[in-house]
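I hope you will forgive my troubling you with a question about protein structure. The full record is reproduced below for your convenience:

——
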Amino acid sequence: MNWLERTIATISPEWAYKRKAWRSGMDALYDSGSRGRLNSNWNPAATADENKMRTERNLILSRARDLERNSDVAESIIDAFERNVVGAGMTLQAKVPKTVAGAEEINQRIEKLWKEFSKAENCDITATQSLEEIQEMLVRRHVVDGGILIVKVFTDDKRFPFKLQVREVDELDSLTTSFGGKRVVDGIEINEFGRPLAYHFKKFDGIRQLHGESIRIEADKVIFWRRKTSPRQVRELSRLRTAIPRIKDANQFIEAVSVKERVLACLSVFIKKASPTGSIGRGVNPTGKNTGYDGMSLSPGMIGELNPGDEVQTVIPSGQASNTKDFISTLVRMVGSGIGLSYEAISRDMSNVNYSSARQGLIEDRKTYKRMQRSLIGTVLSPIYLQFLETMFMTGQLDIRDFMQKKEQYSAHLWIPPGSTWIDPMKEVSANRVALESNQDTLARICAERGEDWREVVMQRIEEIKLIQELTGGVASGENNASDGADKKQQPDE
């Protein structure tokens, strides 16, 4: 009871008891909504306003980049995304429908031009990165920074005037708050619905920033690839934000263990003297000049001599880091669960898995990679490809008279992500064969899992069978076996 209830109890105990019972019944229905002792210090902000997130966003960005530079675990996470989301790069296939006259020639022409455009000197405004290398950098910055900006730039290059300029998120001018009556949130100008209208970038004179000046670029010329998790979210937030504390803990723990092991590997020696080296008064030293051991060290096979009365005592530290592996494994598992990857994908440790568990972990990891692949394709690669097509048409390198009238048909395309293999190919091949025979799967989806086009696979197999027939003067070996089996079935029993 509180003081009021105790006061009431002195007059009417029944009234005080009923009042306390009513107060108990009005407590929080859920433990998560309780303001009791255990939750007294847990009072987070209920809003995610961009102005309130600005300071934390910049701090999280700095910490994520620091881990990128100095943490093995962070680099392993980033490398896993780069290796599986992009790999050797997304493969473009132009898919102009066959109903269009000369569709096959147009598709081949588009793919040839795209291959040329993908070279560093043609697609990158700095002429230093190919499109595949740019994709790797986009994935890295998407994971670490939370977002990346690609500006569409047009130059005086006669063949490929359209180029890409990649800019980091911290290049946005956060000091500008309004422009033309429109609100500017951390460098992004938005309308009343939160739709980006333009991006305000910091202005640089070489490597030096010109404070107070910015460059405004219309939103249709900028691609902002970031993950939006809230309807009111305008800017990005690092994908590592939930894993940063655990990664830091792992780094500090490994450093502490490393220091401890180095101490354990050392041999410390102390010299115990039988009497003081000096005397009272003028400090006359009766033992001679060989009383100090400064600068001396131990070496293999050393034979040394001590001063009279001195004794050697060794110090061997005790203890060992016996729980290091378990603790680090726990931290890496927690990091992986927040990122969406398995422990094996980050640590590359396969010592505690079997075929089933490894396959299940691989399936879940691929779902994470595919989600990022869809975002990369839909937000970045497809808009770049559409702008590329228009540029090729405007420069006359695509001689298509009705391009603007049938733009949707000529823009049809497909992105094939990098292929991947399974743990036990024999089991997967058998499962795919059963799925095809029972009409539970398609050849198109199976080939897409491996990063291949099923039409190219079929056409290539036909070409190979024809070549085998020409070289052997008959049918292929597989067909011979099939025909022999059919002849045996047709022969009557003797």
